[in-house]
Design a protein that fits this description.
five-stranded parallel sheet, Ribose 5-phosphate Isomerase B, Chain: A, 5 strands, 148 residues, alpha/beta, globular, 47% helix
Length: 148
Amino acid sequence: MLSIAIGSDHAGYPLKEKIKDFLISKGYKVIDFGAQSKDSTDYPLFARDVCLSIQKDEAQMGILVCGTGIGMSITANKFKGIRAALCLNEYMARMSRKHNNANVLCLGDRIVGDDLALSIVEAWLSTGFEGGRHERRIKLIEEIEDML
């Protein structure tokens, strides 16, 4: 069973809860790193926890939600081995998996509605990595990470 780590700040909390319920209903194991309310929080802390869980192999994929998704994606992409993609529609979600093998999906609660967000999550989770020429590009990203 695929384990998915999720996290949000206060702005992303309502959508994170809907995504969590959706994932559980689809049979995924969900590791919820918070936030647990709409009380003001700092998004980098939740991005850190989700990304560390992927690095430690506790989860295979992650989903992060804040107001716009931008702060979460910036923070998540600081972690070695994390390929976080901010997706605003299903096409971006599919391409982030097919071409970039994204392992973290970032969403903006204030940007996408609930129905679109769940459709993005479903498209992202149901799409696999194509490999081939894209594998070479992932290896180049990993080489750049190793230089830092």
